[in-house]
Amino acid sequence: MKIKNYVPEFEKSWVYTKALSYLFSPFFDDRSSKKDTFDPEIYSSTIELIAVEDDKVVGLLDIGIYNQEFSLSYKYHPADKVAYFANLAVHPDYQGQGIASKLFAVADKRLIEEGVDVLAIFTREGEVANHLYQKWGGQLVATDYLVVGNLKSEEPFNFEVLGNQGRLRFSRQGKEIPFYQREGVYILSDKAALEQFDIEQVYKEMTYIKTYKKTGKK
């Protein structure tokens, strides 16, 4: 197994590995049909790594390094140079072999060489991922909750089929409405607010910050 810089010829294998890794994880809703890219107006450089075995991707890691303007205005931890942890995935058949740590070891060295001040990591609940981020030096700075469901206080809606117009008609309390929210996705900052929802799924989200010293040493 080798750690390499990502090249486009591995895109299909990259997508498969990310999809399979996320399928039964709290990130099941992150569905990429192509390799994620970084906006050059925001990012000054990137670290895009893959772990390859038998000419297929078995692990991947992406980190984008923001330009100075965006870094200085970064709300979680403004600094001269902020990096964003965008992707980490290991194919299910290869998990538990230390591939994620090998990928991060290479990325961590490059972040130091780049003179990065701060690495921001966003994740959801899950013992393995959170253990790794803490092990790698991430400090938990914020939590929130992602809720899939509907507000209990929301008035129910009705719909009917307008065959002569070839469309549906939605209404609430007898008044036509142009749209309705079939299934909400809400971000909550306070756990107590969960009581306001009829919940289908809820995920706890965590934000970690890893800081680097200006001298280039951790």
UniProtKB/TrEMBL annotation:
Cross-referenced Pfam families: Acetyltransf_1 (PF00583)
InterPro entries in the record: Acyl_CoA_acyltransferase (IPR016181), GNAT_dom (IPR000182)
PROSITE patterns per record: GNAT (PS51186)
GO molecular function: acyltransferase activity, transferring groups other than amino-acyl groups
Domain N-acetyltransferase residue range list: 1-160
The organism's place on the tree of life at top rank: Bacteria
Alphabetical keyword list: Transferase
Record flagged with keyword Flavoprotein: no
UniProt protein name: GNAT family N-acetyltransferase
Species annotation: Streptococcus minor
